[in-house]
Design brief:
This protein is mainly β. The chain has three domains: 65 residues, no CATH class; 240 residues, Immunoglobulin-like, CATH 2.60.40.650; 268 residues, Neuraminidase. Helices cover 14% and strands 44% of the residues. The chain is built from six helices and 40 strands. A hairpin with a 2-residue loop joins β21 and β22. α2 crosses α3.
């Protein structure tokens, strides 16, 4: 009897269990629990599909952001950032590997929320290294992103303070006279102590690579004491007779196309010194990419006085889907703004106001175009979307306002205004508010502003007809400096999006026409890119550093050309026999 009772109880428990399973399945159906998983599946499918779309709307923006953030988080572990001081991987001082994936509101404000986590950070304890006040150092920054070539950025750091170098010790460098060097470099010139009453008082000439003494790689001593009667005769002092130095140094270990600095020390018998620094580029094609959008914090000059140095910034590797040219043209009888593909195809008219529309300038994210428009007989600053929609007027005054340009972060617009008899520079917020005058220069025109890379600075043109020059200042109008101390006319400057190059139109005394010139921001490696056959001007570098777009004069009409960054493969992209095309810029957009 007891056994039968146990069997009945067991069967009852099994029946209850089966009934419970069926019951809960039915309940799940009624409350649609599986539909949540189905909805999630649909969202995932939308995310996959949206990656292949080039247009965007409100819904796809959210989905794209989710996909990008998830992908970015997954890739962070594969991103390697190595930082070296005063030399490359082979010769520099290894500082460490930076952490990637740090929140960067600045990168997000420029390029969108997809790049919010594109920041990096490294704290370095400088230990026993002693940094001389006023000394110049270099950070070599290597970044390897998944599926991309290695990126190399070299940043100059000038420490605050007064250096110990003595100005009475003169150094004159004769070779290398060019910035482009071979794998063996001849360093020669002369040096002397002008306070010496007997001989040159120079004990030795020490040569370093990429950093000052104690930091850069010691290349060796140049031989000193060569007879230089020309120097003695020029200064009228026989003490300078044996002031020559010369040395050949092997730099074959440096990568082709890489940029470096040679530090040349003249050291006296009492261990006083002076220093001459020469920037060089090794001949050949660079192996590492140098055109990524990378920002390294600019406060390093202050940090080196602390026990530890914080190096931070952000890196953005843009995948541009839209690549177009925007320009002004009188193609339809009135000056309007147009855009086209890089080869001139798919021409689209963006403005059609009754007055002239000129000077288009594209924001860093490619989304907005600021330009000048003749509104009821007076030039005003306007803004619109990159496709010509949503036009808005930003200035409302009775003076001519022209040639607008963006600050690096898109928060400010710089422009010129003809007031009190000449052109002066102004700035305002990107919505037209808080307008401020920046220059008061009644003896020259200050115009053609352009925002500096990742700093609140402006490069611009100033002077009178025939004697224009390039200047740089803070965007509050302070700290004005001439950019290039070479005696020829220089106009209409612009800067690459990665800060590596400044490009402008210049006319040397021996040239009849303006030509396109390119240089590094410190004025080094100046190079002319066009031939002196006709006028060339208004040059802009593409955001990916591959191309330069510019205008060329044919008779009385200007046309748009494009060429590679090194000046090769020049080709016409906008050509009209009965109309002009002028003032080009690039539209590059991520989506």
């Amino acid at each position: 009897m007891k056994t039968i009772t146990l069997i009945v109880i067991a069967l009852f428990v099994i029946a209850i269990t089966v009934f419970g399973i069926v019951f809960f399945k039915q309940i799940n159906k009624e409350v649609n629990i599986p539909d949540e998983f189905e909805a999630e599946s649909e969202i995932n499918q939308q995310q996959i599909t949206s990656n292949d779309e080039t247009s965007k709307n409100t819904g796809s923006e959210t989905t794209d952001s989710q996909t990008s953030s998830s992908s970015q988080s997954a890739d962070n572990d594969n991103i390697n950032i190595e930082i070296y001081l005063d030399g490359d991987k082979e010769n520099g001082i290894y500082i460490g590997n930076a952490e990637y994936g740090v929140t960067s509101n600045e990168a997000a404000s420029i390029y969108g929320n997809d790049y919010l986590n594109s920041g990096f950070y490294l704290q370095w304890n400088k230990g026993d290294y002693v940094f001389e006040p006023g000394s110049i150092h270099y950070i070599f920054f290597y970044a390897k992103l998944p599926g991309e070539d290695e990126i190399l950025i070299r940043k100059e750091i000038k420490l605050q303070g007064i250096p110990q170098a003595k100005e009475n010790i003169r150094i004159y460098l004769e070779t290398p006279s060019e910035s482009i060097v071979e794998k063996e470099i001849l360093i020669s010139g002369w040096a002397t102590d002008t306070n010496s009453s007997s001989g040159t008082n120079i004990n030795r000439m020490e040569i370093y690579l990429d950093g000052p003494r104690g930091f850069g790689k010691f290349l060796g001593n140049a031989e000193y004491g060569f007879e230089r009667g020309d120097v003695a005769e020029s200064f009228g002092n026989s003490n300078y007779t044996n002031s020559g130095f010369r040395g050949t140094f092997d730099i074959s270990g440096l990568e082709q196309g890489s940029k470096h600095s040679i530090y040349i020390y003249a050291i006296t018998n009492s261990d006083e010194y002076n220093l001459y620094k020469k920037n060089i580029t090794v001949k050949g094609q660079a192996g590492a990419k140098t055109d990524a959008n990378i920002f390294i914090n600019s406060s390093l000059e202050n940090d080196f006085s602390n026990e530890s140095v914080e190096i931070s910034g952000w890196i953005v590797n843009m995948d541009y889907k839209v690549k177009r040219i925007v320009f002004a043209s009188n193609k339809n009888g009135n000056d309007d703004i147009f855009s086209s593909n890089l080869d001139g195809s798919d021409l689209k008219q963006l403005t059609d106001s009754p007055g002239s529309d000129l000077y288009p300038c594209v924001s860093a994210d490619g989304e907005k175009i600021v330009y000048s428009s003749d509104v009821k007989g007076m030039w005003q600053i306007m803004i619109m979307n990159w496709d010509g929609t949503d036009k808005k007027q930003l200035t409302f005054n009775n003076e001519r306002n022209g040639d607008p340009a963006w600050s690096y972060d898109g928060k400010q617009i710089y422009f010129e205004r003809f007031t009190e008899g000449d052109w002066e520079l102004y700035k305002m917020n990107s919505d037209g508010s808080d307008e401020q005058r920046l220059t008061i220069n009644p003896f020259a025109h200050d115009w053609h502003p352009f925002g500096y890379y990742n700093e609140n600075k402006i490069i611009y043109e100033s002077g009178q007809v025939g004697s224009y020059d390039l200047f740089i200042m803070n965007d509050d109008g302070t700290n004005i400096k001439k950019m290039l101390d070479i005696a020829f006319e220089k106009r209409v400057p612009s800067m690459s999006k990665n800060g590596g190059y400044i490009i402008f139109q210049g006319r040397a005394k021996e040239n009849k026409f303006f030509n396109i010139y390119i240089m590094e921001p410190d004025g080094e490696n100046l190079k002319r890119l066009t031939e002196d056959s006709t006028e060339h001007g208004h040059a802009i570098i593409s955001p990916d550093n591959q191309f330069i777009v510019f205008e060329v004069l044919f008779g009385t009409r200007k046309q748009i050309f494009i060429m590679n960054l090194d000046g090769s493969e020049k080709r016409q992209v906008i050509a009209g026999e009965d109309y002009s095309a002028i003032m080009p810029d690039f539209i590059y957009i991520k989506y």
